[in-house]
Design brief:
Layout: H1 9-23, H2 30-37, H3 41-48, H4 51-69, H5 81-92, H6 96-99, H7 104-112, H8 117-143, H9 153-172, H10 177-190
Domain HTH tetR-type: 6-66
DNA-binding region: 29-48
Protein name: TetR/AcrR family transcriptional regulator
């Protein structure tokens, strides 16, 4: 009979996510992961099988948490509020240390280019899900008259994602928070999304 794990799996995955987010996949060593997670090597391999599989799980978790910020609103006339909330929670109101890490999905798309196409695709798929949620919210906003239909929801969602990607790169460059907020405010105002 296998011995039960002596660590809390969710807490261990969350600790690993923070290390991968800060350091990236390649720069994160196994000793660093084991230390952060508080697990023995044997327990690690029994639970996760490999560093790559753990990274995949962390990337899924990060993507799902980010997507949850864009939950569909309770009211049919509040479709733009989740978009404002998305930028507030991920940049404007986030702790400085977290902002400087950028976005784990964006970081992974860049890091995995030409290195691990499968992991790059996973990160890109998670970003595509966010863009699709933008599109759903913008479609509903146009249907309820919250915003004009000058541009298609798909075009607007792609532009919002471009803003998101650019902001994340600026975060990694450690651009001043005030300048980041100005960029977000100007961009959202152009979309008709009040700051």
């Amino acid at each position: 009979m296998a011995r039960p794990s002596s660590f809390k799996r969710d807490a261990a995955v969350d600790a690993a996510l923070k290390v991968f987010w800060r350091r990236g996949y390649a720069a994160t060593s196994m000793p660093e992961l084991l230390g952060a997670m508080g697990v023995a090597r044997s327990s690690f391999y029994a639970s996760f099988s490999s560093k790559r599989e753990l990274f995949r799980e962390c990337l899924e978790l990060f993507g799902n948490r980010t997507l949850a910020i864009l939950a569909m609103p309770g009211s049919s006339r509040e479709n733009l509020a989740p978009i404002r909330t998305f930028f507030l929670q991920t940049v404007s109101e986030a702790p400085e240390q977290r902002i400087s890490r950028g976005c784990m999905m964006v970081n992974s798309v860049l890091e995995m280019a030409d290195v691990d196409p499968e992991l790059q695709l996973l990160a890109q798929t998670k970003l595509d899900e966010i863009q699709d949620r933008f599109r759903q919210l913008l479609t509903n906003a146009q249907l309820t008259g919250e915003m004009t239909d000058t541009h298609s929801p798909a075009e607007l969602a792609e532009t919002l994602m471009t803003l998101n990607l650019g902001i994340r790169v600026q975060c990694r460059k450690q651009v001043d928070r005030i300048r980041l907020q100005q960029s977000i405010d100007i961009s959202l105002t152009l979309f008709g999304i009040a700051a």
